[in-house]
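Subject: Methyltransferase-like protein 13 structure
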Amino acid sequence: MALDSTAFKTIVPSRYITFTIPNLLLHLHHFNSSQLRIAVLDSPATSESIQIAAMLVPTGRESDWYFSTEQGHLQLILNFPQLSRLVLIGNSSNSTNPTSYNPLLCTDGVAGVANLSVVEENLMPLLIELIPRSAFCRTGDGLCEIPFLSYEDEVVRSLVLDRCVGEFVGEMLIEDVELELEDGGGREFRRRLRFKRMPNLVQTQIKIRPKNVDFVNMEEVEFEIVDDGVLVHPYLTPMVAGLSVIRSFLDAKIGNGIKPKALCLGVGGGALLGFLSSQLGLQVLGIEADNVVLEVARRYFGLERGSSIHLCVGDALDTIGKFATQVESDGFRGYVLENGEHLNDFDGKFDVIMIDLDATDSNIGMSAPPLAFFHKSALLAIRTLLSKDGVVIINVIPSNQTSYKLVITEFKEVFAELYEIDVGNEDNFVLIASASKIGHVSVHRQTTPGTNIYNIQRPIVYLQNSKVVRPCQAALSQASLQFLCKLQINTRHALTTVQLQFMQFLPQLLQLTGSPV
């Protein structure tokens, strides 16, 4: 079917077009395939001002869902809300599925790499044909201005372990990656889980290490999971830190020999569930919509059912609705899930509810969680499941400020207090909502005049049977401890800002775990 060149003369929200053309730039030693793949996506949001940009797909990553799918392309353009159209240009890949990535093997024996500015200049005639006439901005020399965006992440190389298909989440990818850590922190190996429906969102990642350090390619070595009690996923650390707002309540339960109960909506690879159980001593129930995801968590990420971790396959929204009805009538004593799992250990309400779910579709203005979780009926069901002093902690990835403000409004209508942690990666926010007013949070006012900034006085220490169980901060890496969590307390009547500074507690926390200071 012939491509209609006039299709690009107007902006049509969410329109996605891909095509290939002969590669006439082989002599520049950047693109090394005989064909170039061109993907054009118009933003789902409309704007009076039309702005077009282009991006060169990193060599060797052409088959990655980041760049080869409409959903990946959509998540890229949503990072630039001012854009009307984003054009991706890269080698045409022979693979329809993600492949392992090693930059040392991507030159295909071609010596020398072109100056990117020369490549971009040679692509301008093509790009001019792909922009609406109304978008032309003439400079003094009569050239059309089309900026080139660059894509950079921390991935040094990757190895695809498996690709699975789940009934609910669809295609998923398990990969081992080598990462370049920020701030000169060196390199580290991680195992990751990603879904094709939200390819730019890493569902789970854990630390791994090679069993043999003498290797060149990742295919040559076997990796093992590093079980050091450290959360490496950027937003999981703040989610666990959110427990600090009810630390007195949790201290009291553990001190009386009672394990706090946690409900986790969304399991993924199980990193959060494993941490809550092994490091904090919580009784955990995980709800996952797709049984294949649970199998992946067991096989590749080391998640196992046990006396303190119970797992259930089911829709999260349906489950909280059923649970809310059950807990108000007979409780969970004698209650049996569809998979035969008994919930006798969860005879009362939950002290903590953790929500870590992707939205399945980033077109809706929210990458996580599904918008249905912000409906009043869902929030009321969640509050019903919470114990009197319990909290719900939720990972939120809004596409824009407007949708995020609506989320805040909905939460404030249902819960007594609302805390916010800005993860600091320009994507994630962690919300902590309490069933009742938290009067025992120990804070003090800073001396800065005209501010409402407070600091939490002391770390969380969980005591159980006279044994120190690793507090959430102590189980974090030193780099994570330097992270400054900014919390905003949003009540129905006031707005106060609280800062949680982990660094001041570092020496005593490391001492608790026996690590050198």
